[in-house]
Design a protein that fits this description.
Helices cover about 10% and strands about 40% of the residues. With about 500 residues, the protein is mostly beta strands. The protein has a domain at about 20-70. The strands form nine sheets. A five-stranded mixed β-sheet has the order 19-20-21-22-26, with no helix packed on it. Helix 2 (about 35-40) packs antiparallel against helix 3. The longest helix is centred in the N-terminal third of the chain and has 13 residues, at about 80-90. It is globular and about 65 Å long. The protein starts with about 20 loop residues before the first helix and ends with a helix. This is F-box domain-containing protein. It holds the Pfam family WD40. It comes from Solanum lycopersicum (Tomato). InterPro entries: F-box-like_dom_sf, WD40/YVTN_repeat-like_dom_sf, WD40_repeat_dom_sf, WD40_rpt.
Length: about 500
């Protein structure tokens, strides 16, 4: 060691987190996004103090809603309260001036409607259609028809690209891969406007595909159900040289077509499938056996025709006939049952809030699953009225429930926790509904909603984005943090 060099410190002095200057922490936190700020706030009380400071939430507000600024608000409100309050209002559609884009489309019923970033994706018969919202905003016509199937598309699934073995670059990280099944005996994987891969079954129509991929990365498996009652497992591994290599296993057990398929929440190798005759089978797809029927690790049946299914942790929630049944996958025993006096037409579940919603005739019902093991109509949290026919369209997220049906010209928006009605939206831009016009499909993603109308002669797609809306609806509460106006930034706001 050089004699002139200072020896290393041997004292017990150290620097702790609280020694970091608070102003410096706040300055650094102002460059973070909402998720990072939330994570920072949960790390420690000292970091939470920095994360909750006004400059951080002013920065988040500018990132999300510039050039809007809050106005006419109480001076006792913190910037965090204002940000979160506006975010809730935006996600609950509490404004009358959203951005509206109407799309000229063919006079065909539109199915499998999906909002993906700035694209609208839906199926028309055997074709998959993609429209870019930004292009229409700027007066450009961007309507791509993706052809490949030769018969009607039966289902459409969106899968994050990074969850597949096809993921190879950071540029694909935020993209989605789309999977379609068809009556033409094939499954196709779409990305960037073209078919990247296809699976084919000889003389068997595909009746269902799994809602998620099975297994852990990189060995990802897609499950499909056929009209022959056989469940097939397809590998997304790119190493296969021939199409025959894609088919990894066939599972026998159903004697009718599988109509619903879902991956278990607590174990990604478990697949739950329900056939048309309401037979429920749980498969362990990680099991290796020459006799593939031995992959079955549980069986049950539910009363009535199956309509929808959702897996959460070790439970399966199945809407069928006049009830919703929850079954524990580990024991295949019924945990609870929600009873109706009529047929269930749609079903959505919000497990983190222990809430679920069922669509019935002319109304929907909101339920709290913690209220007992055998719940009846009188024990519902709320009854969501105002529909003309069967409630077949249903969306549910932590902020809102959106409900509609084929006889409705409007969709209704309700508060998730208590079922209080927030607003109603016309399904298309027409001021008055034409005779026979109906809401045929719906897609909701955060502050955006897409509705499709069709009467056999005319069609309409209406896109609404509430993110930059400024005028609150009159139906909103008049409390100081809920009823407010959001104005564009004025010159005086920028002067210091």
């Amino acid at each position: 060691m050089d004699e002139t060099s200072s020896p290393p410190a041997t004292g017990n002095s150290s620097t702790s987190l609280t020694d970091v200057d608070m102003d410096a922490l706040v300055h650094c936190a102002s460059y973070l996004n909402l998720q990072d700020v939330s994570n920072m706030a949960m790390s420690s009380k000292y970091l939470q103090k920095a994360a909750y400071s006004d400059p951080v939430w002013e920065s988040l507000f500018r990132q999300q809603w510039s050039p809007l600024v809050p106005s006419g608000l109480s001076h006792t409100s913190t910037e965090r309260e204002l940000y979160l309050s506006r975010r809730t209002d935006v996600l609950q559609f509490k404004f009358i001036d959203p951005e509206v884009v109407n799309f000229p489309i063919r006079a065909k019923p539109h199915e499998n409607l999906c909002l993906d970033k700035d694209n609208i994706i839906f199926s028309e018969g055997s074709s998959l259609c993609v429209m870019n919202i930004d292009d229409f905003r700027h007066g450009e016509d961007s309507y791509d028809t993706l052809r490949g199937h030769t018969a009607k598309i039966t289902s459409l699934r969106s899968i994050p690209f990074e969850e597949t073995c096809l993921y190879s670059s950071k540029g694909q990280k935020s993209d989605n891969l789309f999977v379609t099944s068809s009556l033409d005996h094939s499954i196709r994987l779409w990305w960037k406007g073209s078919c990247q891969r296809s699976f084919r079954i000889c003389n068997v129509s595909v009746s269902a595909i799994s809602d998620k991929l099975l297994g852990d990365h990189p060995s990802k498996i897609l499950a499909s159900g056929g009209s022959d009652g056989i469940v097939r497992l397809w590998s997304l591994d790119c190493s296969g040289k021939r199409s025959q290599d894609d088919l990894k296993a066939v599972l026998y057990g159903h004697d009718k077509p599988a109509v619903l398929m879902s991956v278990a929440g607590h174990k990604t190798s478990l697949l739950v499938s329900i056939s048309r005759n309401s037979k429920v089978i749980v498969w362990d797809t990680a099991t290796s056996s020459a006799n593939r029927s031995s992959c079955c690790v549980g069986k049950s049946t539910v009363p009535g025709a199956p309509k929808a299914m959702k897996c959460h942790e070790s439970l399966i929630y199945i809407a069928a006939g006049t009830s919703v049944v929850a079954i524990d996958i580990r024991t295949m025993r019924q945990v609870f049952k929600v009873n109706h006096q009529e047929e269930v037409h749609s079903f959505q579940m919000l497990p983190e809030k222990s809430l679920m919603c069922t669509g019935l005739a002319q109304r929907a019902m909101l339920w709290d699953v913690r209220r007992g093991c055998d719940i009846h109509k009188g024990e519902a949290v709320a009854e969501l009225d105002g529909h003309r026919g069967n409630v077949s369209l249903l969306h549910m997220d932590p902020y809102k429930i959106v409900s509609g049906g084929l006889k409705d010209f409007q969709v209704h928006v309700w508060e998730t926790g208590n079922g209080r009605q927030l607003t109603s939206l016309n399904c298309c831009s027409l001021s008055d509904s034409r005779q026979g016009y109906r809401c045929s499909a719906m897609a909701v993603n955060g502050s955006r909603i897409l509705t499709a109308c069709n009467d056999g002669h005319f069609s309409d797609l209406c896109f609404r984005d509430f993110n930059n809306a400024t005028i609150p609806s009159l139906s909103s509460d008049s409390s100081i943090l809920q009823s407010k106006f959001w104005a564009p930034k004025s010159q005086s706001d920028t002067e210091e």
